[in-house]
Write a structure and sequence with these properties.
disordered N terminus; 4 strands; globular
Length: 362
């Protein structure tokens, strides 16, 4: 038994060494630096930060390098590192109305105070391979930045002035922290939003897509999508007031959804909401659609049995780290389990064969 353990340990060490060699790749090719990943693969970095629940572009880039580009593995590394960090306190809620927007669009109103800011996006590009990017020593053209418009109001405020959209639900109680406490059902909206912002982008996208195809009766418009930087403030007890401790980039999406009204509420529009680290607009829009679908009960709507309306189904299956752990554990040795099932199948086959022989003899 001792020999088997030592042999397994040696094999694992060799696997680690081989992994490091594969990670490095052809040594005649220049090694990819963390700074290059951070600056040139920023969308991958943003996803790792968002689903890893840690805003640190350098660490996210390092995790991507260590994981050989496997973003879920990188997210796992970031979450594991996050658990080792001391917690000094909590920041104040960020005010996205004060966001310095790099991108701000609305599908509901064409003319907005502050204007539509297209920003850096793939929306208007041709999906054709650009072989110029393969050229060595390419110098990118200087970006044309929009003039700084300063803080701009949220689009939904225009609807709110006429009472055409529900008041944004407000709850000043401190929500549970999903990074420190396990998810429990039933989950209120604050907890659901935490789970969705950490959820796997592909899963959230699929759930959101299902709502658009009729599985939730959830027709939505993008009221506003904005990407930009917001200051983060923290109260310092010794000072007695908040101070700015840094800035972070966020993507925020508010959807405007139809609502036919209820016994207590007139016909109006309702909201779906998404807020994610970095430039992660596909995730933010998906999150907003799923958030709205999960609100069916509090809005007094019918549950049509759509997957996106089932909070337990969505939230318990959205986390890619939990899903990966449960999925990949079946790669581990299950020799005893399999041998017992193998013996059971052999026994059943013998019984069937014996029955067939008896019937043939009769």
């Amino acid at each position: 038994m001792y020999v088997a353990v030592k042999g397994g340990e040696r094999a694992i060490q060799n696997a680690h060494a081989w992994l490091a060699e594969e990670r490095r790749g052809d040594t005649s090719v220049a090694e990819l630096s963390v700074a290059q990943i951070r600056e040139q693969l920023s969308l991958a970095v943003n996803r790792v930060m968002a689903e890893g629940s840690l805003y640190d572009p350098d660490l996210a880039a390092l995790a991507i390098k260590q994981a050989r580009g496997d973003l879920i593995e990188a997210i796992f590394l970031i979450r594991a590192y996050r658990t080792t960090l001391p917690r000094f306190g909590a920041s104040a809620p960020v005010d996205t109305g004060e966001m310095a927007c790099d991108r701000r669009i609305s599908a509901t109103f064409k003319d907005l105070p502050g204007g539509q800011v297209l920003g850096p996006t793939f929306d208007y590009t041709h999906r054709l391979l650009d072989f110029k990017l393969a050229a060595e020593g390419e110098i990118a053209e200087a970006p044309r930045r929009e003039a700084d418009q300063g803080p701009v109001p949220h689009v939904t405020e225009f609807l709110n002035k006429e009472g055409l959209i529900e008041e944004a639900p407000r709850d000043d109680t401190t929500p549970p922290d999903l990074t420190r406490e396990p998810l429990e059902m039933p989950a209120d909206r604050a907890l659901r939003l935490q789970a969705l912002t950490r959820a796997d982008e592909g899963f959230t996208l699929s759930m959101a897509y299902s709502t658009q195809r009729g599985y939730a009766r959830n027709h939505a418009f993008v009221g506003e999508l904005r990407i930009g930087t917001v200051p983060v403030e923290m109260e310092i007890p010794e000072l007695g007031f908040d101070i700015e401790i840094g800035e972070i980039t966020l993507t925020e999406c508010e959807t405007v959804n139809q609502f036919k009204g209820s016994k207590t509420e007139p016909p109006q529009f309702t909201r779906g909401y998404g807020l994610v680290f970095g430039q992660t607009e596909r995730k933010a829009i998906s999150m907003a659609l799923v958030d709205r679908a999960l609100r069916w009960e509090e809005l007094g709507e019918d549950n049509v049995g759509a997957p996106a309306q089932d909070a337990e189904f969505v939230l318990y299956h959205a986390d890619n780290i939990q899903a990966t752990g449960f999925l990949e554990h079946i790669k581990l040795p299950h020799y005893v389990d399999f041998q017992s099932e193998l013996e059971l199948v052999r026994k059943l086959r013998r019984e069937v064969e014996a029955t067939q022989h008896r019937e043939a003899a009769e």
